[in-house]
Amino acid sequence: MPQLLTIQQILFFSETLARIYGYAIWLPNIPSFLIKMVMGEMSKMILTGRRISSGKIEKLGFQFQFKTLEYALKDCLGK
What we know:
This protein is mostly helical. It has helices at residues 7-20, 32-39, 43-48, 55-59, 69-76.
């Protein structure tokens, strides 16, 4: 089973990857009430997060080449 990531880890990854490639990334801190007002019921997906499991596809025979984001990035970046 691959490593699960929190939203903070995903944001850190995005910012780090952008910095490595020399891109500027700006992720605004939007208040939750504003997200709820704009997105309505769909805001729950963003604000509460989801715990996603790879169990179903693994049971069907899918095998992950990398168990962690770090190993996958090192392979992609040739490091």
